[in-house]
TrEMBL record:
It holds the Pfam family DUF2383. This is PA2169 family four-helix-bundle protein. It comes from Hufsiella ginkgonis. Residues 10-117 form the DUF2383 domain. It comes from the Bacteria.
Length: 157
């Protein structure tokens, strides 16, 4: 039977993996774009994800997880491969990159929503996870605004 600590450890490992995926994904996005303003934004969000992962890492250990899962998860690798394929065959690379970033942020938000349900709310983790979710949501909103802003400036859309 899974214990309270094991369950939290697994959820925290998943969040840590997603944060690392986000860091790698945003770095890849910065490399894909030719827009210096977007590159700066993507690098800021990559640094944010790294900072969030650093905040979470000690709690992963406390709850019996493995904090050395720094390479990102299998789903993140698939997501990054899709970003590379999609941008290679899309007329407006920045729109495709932003869309992929939005999708990654939505996956992270879903994982945080899942983790924040149930008994994890009874731990000292609650305010940390809530604040991290807010940070990711704000990043999503900024990326979403940029994404739809590009639609306004793109001919034929």
């Amino acid at each position: 039977m899974e214990t309270y600590t094991e369950n939290h450890g697994q959820k925290l490992e998943q969040l840590l993996s997603l944060l690392n995926d986000g860091k790698i994904g945003y770095r890849n996005a910065a490399q894909q774009t030719e827009n210096p303003d977007l590159r700066t934004i993507f690098m800021r969000f990559a640094a944010q994800r790294e900072e969030l992962a650093d905040q979470l890492r000690p709690f992963v250990t406390t709850y019996g997880g493995d904090p050395d899962n720094i390479g990102g998860g299998a789903l993140g690798a698939i997501h990054r491969s899709w970003m590379n394929i999609k941008t290679a065959f899309t007329d407006n690379d920045d729109q495709a990159i932003l869309e992929t970033c939005k999708n990654g942020d939505l996956a992270a938000l879903d994982a945080y929503d899942d983790a924040l349900q149930g008994s994890i709310l009874e731990t000292p983790l609650k305010p940390i996870l809530m604040n991290q979710r807010i940070d990711i949501h704000q990043a999503f909103l900024e990326i979403d605004k940029l994404y739809f802003g590009l639609f306004k400036t793109s001919p034929g859309i």
